[in-house]
């Protein structure tokens, strides 16, 4: 009966019914011996109105009107066949008017469900017409035995009244009609009927109160159940922190848009968002500030999307947006730029001013044959491309990315089926002290000559290995090879070796690296482990723990590609760092912009004050080298001295360097 009534309306209706019939409820509890709850005596706690009461009873009233229409249609036909003359006309018309009125109000209330007045008005009018039927019959064919029909009407009104006032008004009208007919037809015998009808009236009002009390109890239980179900649904579909839809809601919305695409050819766009620089803020200022930041990000996404898209939190600092409808590439780029600009604005968080950015990967979906996993894979690749090449900017997945992704997948599958120990090798590039004019170290660089694919570029296979998880296995293979070659070098010569983010995040990987170094017999002080800023900031606490363990072993630590990520002096002084390598991106701009040289000088001076070595990598020309001499750069790595060389050429390179130094001396 109440299955499609809103819980709030049900609760308000129940309290209102209890309030209206308060005296009778008190009498009922006194007779039954039950103890009423406080809520039974007052409906004010639930804010009940007459409108809410009518809405709650609407379904009962609609069914009541439908039954009345059917019954009085039958009565109309019965009058036509059983009555004659004017009696037939009066009684048939009375029944027909009752039936038509009932069906009209029933249909109107169905059509206008939001208007609770129609069932109440309709039931009141139909009740009066129902009273008119026995009145007309008794006036035309008085039958004392049929006076009981008025008592039946009392019961009908008690059960079906749309509101307590309709019940009361209909019952009083029925009592008045019965007494009027009785006094007109049998004035001497109405004493008994008067008392009987009063009992019927009291019974109707009492039964109506009991019905409402019973309904109230059922409704109260339903309200509690619905409220708990709504809360559980909200927790299941909504991110508790940001109040955005969660991962589950996102996938449901994604599937819905795919269904619309397949059915009606309506395209849509998908965006995956990853915050750049969130981890340092969360680690530096604490989780409360980090949570506040995520809440602000959620609010900005909600404002940017408006009614055009559904933003969702996928977990951590990852978000997603489903943009329904058709839009051009330029419109999507404009939306992405607006989105990134909004995320880049300063966040004011409980006394902390924070700045982050967001990388965004977009994919346009207009192909009905695409699957959810394919869409997410493409959007994820666009996001990955943005983070690697265009941090804080949007990237739209294109056919070129599709080709790269296929190549990436091929590389990934080939890596998994290759003899890694046989196919991987090491080359070395010198790092030169231009003050003393000597090589002080070599950087070990990975090379892969695949039996299936041939020579694969390092930037391709390293990314594939990192994403597949094979990088830790490759690290062990390459480190063993590098240490084996170092055994043939002069004892003062060092080598630097790159570690990936996965290596840093894995305590097992760090333990294996330490074991490999110890088994090699190489003095750990001759080894430098290089990590990038991005790898370091992915999980700063774990990075500190991993680097500290390597430092305790005796190895040196270098920060690679300094300046290309989100450098922080606050982080720098907390890490056990011995060396900083300035990214080639600065060197490329060296000749074009004088400001770049000042930046490099500032970094070199910073390293000198912190007692850190500073290597400028990627130096290729004499012009670049001369500019670096001006700012007192000391350690240089790049083609200007040597390209990466196989291990077998290192000894010859050092011998030639020794001859050159002796000649210079």
Automatic annotation (TrEMBL):
Transmembrane intervals: 64-81, 88-109, 121-140, 147-172, 192-215
Superkingdom field: Bacteria
Domain EAL intervals: 408-658
Pfam families given in the database record: EAL (PF00563), GGDEF (PF00990)
Keywords assigned by UniProt, alphabetized: Membrane, Transmembrane, Transmembrane helix
Residues in GGDEF domain copies: 266-399
The name this protein goes by in its record: Diguanylate cyclase GGDEF domain protein
Species whose genome carries this gene: Asticcacaulis biprosthecium C19
């Amino acid at each position: 009966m109440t299955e499609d009534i809103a819980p709030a309306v049900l609760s308000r209706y129940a309290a209102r019914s209890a309030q209206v019939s308060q005296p009778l409820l008190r009498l009922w509890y006194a007779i039954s011996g039950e103890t009423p709850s406080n809520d039974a005596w007052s409906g004010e706690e639930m804010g009940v109105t007459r409108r809410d009461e009518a809405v709650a009873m609407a379904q009962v009233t609609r069914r009541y009107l439908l039954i009345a229409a059917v019954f009085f249609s039958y009565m109309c036909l019965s009058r036509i066949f059983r009555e004659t003359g004017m009696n037939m006309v009066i009684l048939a018309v009375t029944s027909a008017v009752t039936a038509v009125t009932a069906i009209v109000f029933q249909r109107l209330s169905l059509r206008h469900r939001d208007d609770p007045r129609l069932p109440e008005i309709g039931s009141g009018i139909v009740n009066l017409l129902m009273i008119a039927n026995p009145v007309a019959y008794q006036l035309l064919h008085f039958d004392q035995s049929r006076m009981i029909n008025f008592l039946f009407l009392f019961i009908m009104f008690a059960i079906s009244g749309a509101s307590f006032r309709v019940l009361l008004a209909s019952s009083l009208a029925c009592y008045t009609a019965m007494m009027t007919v009785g006094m007109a037809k049998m004035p001497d015998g109405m004493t008994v009927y008067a008392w009987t009808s009063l009992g019927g009236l009291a019974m109707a009002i009492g039964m109506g109160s009991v019905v409402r009390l019973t309904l109230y109890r059922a409704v109260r239980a339903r309200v509690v159940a619905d409220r708990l179900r709504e809360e559980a649904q909200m927790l299941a579909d909504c991110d508790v922190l940001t109040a955005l839809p969660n991962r589950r809601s996102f996938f449901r919305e994604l599937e819905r848009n795919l269904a619309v695409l397949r059915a009606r050819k309506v395209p849509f766009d998908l965006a995956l968002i990853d915050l750049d620089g969130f981890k340092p803020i969360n680690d530096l200022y604490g989780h409360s500030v980090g949570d506040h930041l995520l809440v602000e990000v959620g609010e900005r996404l909600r404002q940017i999307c408006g009614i055009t898209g559904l933003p969702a939190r996928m977990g951590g600092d990852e978000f997603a947006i489903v943009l329904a409808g058709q839009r051009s590439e330029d419109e999507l780029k404009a939306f992405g730029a607006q989105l990134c600009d909004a995320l880049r604005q300063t966040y004011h968080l409980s006394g902390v001013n924070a700045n982050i950015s967001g990388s965004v990967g977009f994919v346009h979906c207009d192909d009905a044959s695409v699957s959810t996993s394919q869409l997410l894979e493409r959007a994820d690749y666009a996001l990955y491309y943005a983070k690697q090449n265009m941090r804080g900017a949007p990237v739209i997945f294109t056919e070129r990315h599709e080709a790269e992704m296929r190549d990436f997948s091929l590389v990934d599958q080939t890596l998994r089926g290759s003899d890694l120990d046989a196919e991987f090798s090491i080359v070395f590039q010198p790092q030169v002290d231009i003050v003393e004019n000597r090589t002080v170290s070599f950087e070990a660089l990975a090379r892969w000559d695949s039996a299936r694919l041939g020579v694969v570029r390092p930037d391709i296979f390293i990314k594939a290995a990192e994403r597949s998880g094979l990088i830790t296995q490759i690290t062990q293979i390459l480190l063993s090879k590098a240490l084996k070659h170092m055994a043939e070098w002069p004892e003062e010569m060092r080598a630097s070796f790159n570690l990936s983010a996965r290596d840093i995040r894995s305590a097992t990987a760090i333990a294996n690296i330490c074991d490999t170094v110890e088994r090699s017999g190489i003095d750990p002080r001759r080894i430098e482990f290089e990590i990038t800023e991005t790898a370091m900031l992915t999980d700063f606490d774990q990075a500190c723990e991993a680097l500290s363990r390597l430092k305790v072993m005796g190895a040196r630590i270098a920060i690679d590609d300094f300046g290309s990520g989100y450098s922080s002096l606050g982080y720098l002084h907390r890490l056990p760092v011995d060396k900083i390598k300035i990214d080639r991106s600065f060197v490329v701009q060296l000749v074009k912009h004088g400001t770049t040289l000042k930046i490099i000088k500032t970094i070199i001076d910073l390293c000198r004050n912190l007692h850190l070595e500073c290597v400028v990598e990627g130096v290729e020309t004499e012009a670049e080298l001369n500019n670096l001499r001006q700012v007192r750069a000391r350690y240089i790595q790049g083609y200007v001295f040597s390209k990466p060389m196989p291990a077998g050429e290192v000894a010859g390179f050092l011998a030639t360097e020794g001859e050159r130094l002796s000649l210079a001396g």
